């Protein structure tokens, strides 16, 4: 008896039983993870299959051996069904295997098991013969038509499960490749080995070698579980996450294949297109929307779509869906509700136009009248009229800056101009307005793109240096003379230097004034203004927004004056993607 127990045929089944049972216990510990329940059930069935076969080798009673042989076929009939269930759950297609479909899938197995135990006759085994070899008890039988038919069906079910996993492995990239290969090895080995049993190519007559292959399956499954943590990293989690993201998006998402048939439609897209998402699946796009909305049989990327009651507007964005070979296999359409955005832009455009127009015209009247009063009056009355006129001039200038902001934000053209010519024109204009300021200019003759935006940015920085930084500004002129903060000839200076550094030109504007107030820098540092912390105008905002449009950068140093350094991309080049595009930096490197 001990020799029989030590037989490799018995020991092989014991190893297969213990290994698959251990995997089932491990799967139970991960029962809250996707696919863990069908995998655990699959492992328990495999363990029971190996154990039943092992016991059958040791039992002399023919009736018991026939019963165990029937149980062998019960496990053989059930395992492929659980494998397919696991494959669906593992790949994230579990919801597709509805109870009705599962019942249809298991129906042939149930019918076979009933026939197997009630009246096998010649349908299950056309004949059988007890065999004893070296103390091992076997049953050598010829398969009947029902068993052959079921075997073909079970092979198809097994291959279907493998196909589901292979399909996912090919489309999921490298993330799940190794564990997918391990699972396929685990299921392919028993399939191949079972073919030898069916054609009676086995070491012992009547020996079914399929359960021995379960030891290999256990090693492969264990490798997937413990080396690649496949239950912790089951792709179903990824698929469910994608599903949740798609369903929970506030935007409509419609996915079509290369024939413009809908393969995915989230609830928002269903509401937009006035169709049930499930009914939309398989339908062609032209069946869901008017032909006027389509260009070449699909949505125009720049089109706006009105919904059925005409109260909402949607911008449509599309992007291709490619396979692992970079072949386009479909497209994704995203419907973004732009109704409120466009309404807000319309309101802002109207308010901007009306306020700028009325402000400029009315303030020009105020300025003219105030200057008339200034000329007619004396003393404090004349000073009051002058103050009114100055404030009105500042408001008119503010309206001009608002127009500049609008120009910057709307500028999408790539007009180019020489930086030296641009700065030269700017300095000529400033010199005419401020003859008391001396400009020291040394700018390279390089071409910059979006010259309109560049001019707006540089002019506001130079204006800031002249009006607010220079000791010769109107508000600081008296103190400048008193404290000797002028050049030898009685003028004040603003320095504009530039040099080329790779694909950018660095432009520096420096003055010798008191520096930009902290409140101005604080508002820009936070990216917004508050009721207690805001700048006095739009100048630095024009600089910030302009630099953002130019994909440049700006740094500010305040120390016995203000030094502003711009990095502007040279026309025809691109900046380093690691550069701090549009970032503001202070004298400590941050702002």
TrEMBL record:
Report the SMART domains cross-referenced here.
HATPase_c (SM00387)
Q: Which residues form the Histidine kinase domain?
A: 354-572
One MF annotation (Gene Ontology) recorded for this entry: kinase activity
Q: Name one Pfam family in it.
A: PAS_9
InterPro entries found in the cross-reference section = HATPase_C_sf (IPR036890), HATPase_dom (IPR003594), His_kinase_dom (IPR005467), HisKA_7TM (IPR031621), PAS (IPR000014), PAS-assoc_C (IPR000700), PAS-like_dom_sf (IPR035965)
Region Disordered, annotated ranges: 571-591
Can you give the residue ranges of the PAC domain?
A: 299-350
Give TM segment ranges: 6-27, 39-59, 71-90, 102-128, 148-169, 181-199
Q: Which PROSITE patterns match?
A: HIS_KIN, PAC
Q: Which Gene3D superfamilies does this chain map to? A: Histidine kinase-like ATPase, C-terminal domain, PAS domain
Q: In what ranges is there compositional bias, type Basic and acidic residues?
A: 575-591
Q: Which UniProt keywords apply?
A: Kinase, Membrane, Transferase, Transmembrane, Transmembrane helix
Q: Which PANTHER family match?
A: SENSOR HISTIDINE KINASE (PTHR43065), SENSOR HISTIDINE KINASE PDTAS (PTHR43065:SF23)
* Listed name of the protein: Histidine kinase N-terminal 7TM domain-containing protein
Q: What is the lineage of its organism?
A: Archaea, Methanobacteriati, Methanobacteriota, Stenosarchaea group, Halobacteria
């Amino acid at each position: 008896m001990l020799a029989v127990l030590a037989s490799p045929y018995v020991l092989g089944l014991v190893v297969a039983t213990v290994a698959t049972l251990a995997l089932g216990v491990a799967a139970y510990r991960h029962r809250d993870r996707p696919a863990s329940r069908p995998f655990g059930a699959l492992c328990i069935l495999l363990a029971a299959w190996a154990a039943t076969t092992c016991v059958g080798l040791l039992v002399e009673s023919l009736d018991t051996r026939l019963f165990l042989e029937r149980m062998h076929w019960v496990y053989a009939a059930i395992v492929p069904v659980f494998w397919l269930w696991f494959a669906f759950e593992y790949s994230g297609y579990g919801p597709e295997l509805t109870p009705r479909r599962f019942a249809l899938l298991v129906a042939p197995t149930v019918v076979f098991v009933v026939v197997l135990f009630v009246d096998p006759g010649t349908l299950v085994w056309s004949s059988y013969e007890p065999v004893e070899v070296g103390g091992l008890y076997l049953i050598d039988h010829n398969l009947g038509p029902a068993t052959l038919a079921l075997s073909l069906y079970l092979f198809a079910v097994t291959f279907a499960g493998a196909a589901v996993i292979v399909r996912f492995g090919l489309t999921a990239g490298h993330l799940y490749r190794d564990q997918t290969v391990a699972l396929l090895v685990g299921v392919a080995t028993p399939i191949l080995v079972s073919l030898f049993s069916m054609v009676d190519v086995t070491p012992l007559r009547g020996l079914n070698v399929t359960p021995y292959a379960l030891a290999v399956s256990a090693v492969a499954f264990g490798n997937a579980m413990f080396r690649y943590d496949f239950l912790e990293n089951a792709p179903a989690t990824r698929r469910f996450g994608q599903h949740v993201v798609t369903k929970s998006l506030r935007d409509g998402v419609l996915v079509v294949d290369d024939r413009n048939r809908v393969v995915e439609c989230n609830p928002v897209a269903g509401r937009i297109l006035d169709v049930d998402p499930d009914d939309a699946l398989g339908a062609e796009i032209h069946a869901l929307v008017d032909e006027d909305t389509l260009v070449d049989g699909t949505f125009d990327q720049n089109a706006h779509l009105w919904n059925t009651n005409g109260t909402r507007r949607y911008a449509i964005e599309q992007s291709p869906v490619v396979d692992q070979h970079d072949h386009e296999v479909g497209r994704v359409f995203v419907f973004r509700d732009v109704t409120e955005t466009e309404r807000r832009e319309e309101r802002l455009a109207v308010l901007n136009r009306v306020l700028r127009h009325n402000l400029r015209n009315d303030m020009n009247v105020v300025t003219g009248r105030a200057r008339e009063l200034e000329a007619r009056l004396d003393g404090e009355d004349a000073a009051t009229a002058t103050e009114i006129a100055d404030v009105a001039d500042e408001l008119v200038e503010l309206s001009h800056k608002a127009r500049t902001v609008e120009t910057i934000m709307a500028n999408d053209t790539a007009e180019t101009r020489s930086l030296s010519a641009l700065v030269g024109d700017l300095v000529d204009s400033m010199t005419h307005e401020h003859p008391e300021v001396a400009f020291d200019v040394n700018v390279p003759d390089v071409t910059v793109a979006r010259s309109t935006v560049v001019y707006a940015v540089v002019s506001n920085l130079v204006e800031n240096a002249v009006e607010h930084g220079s000791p010769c500004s109107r508000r600081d002129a008296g103190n400048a003379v008193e404290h000797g903060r002028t050049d030898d000839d009685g003028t004040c200076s603003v320095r504009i230097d530039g040099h080329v550094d790779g694909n950018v030109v660095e432009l520096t504007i420096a003055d010798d004034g008191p520096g930009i107030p902290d409140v101005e820098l604080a508002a820009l540092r936070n990216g917004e203004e508050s009721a207690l912390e805001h700048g006095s105008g739009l100048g630095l905002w024009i600089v910030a927004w302009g630099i953002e449009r130019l994909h440049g950068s700006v740094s500010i140093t305040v120390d016995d004056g203000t030094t502003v350094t711009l990095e502007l991309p040279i026309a025809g080049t691109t900046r380093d993607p690691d550069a701090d595009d549009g970032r503001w930096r202070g004298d400590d490197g941050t702002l």
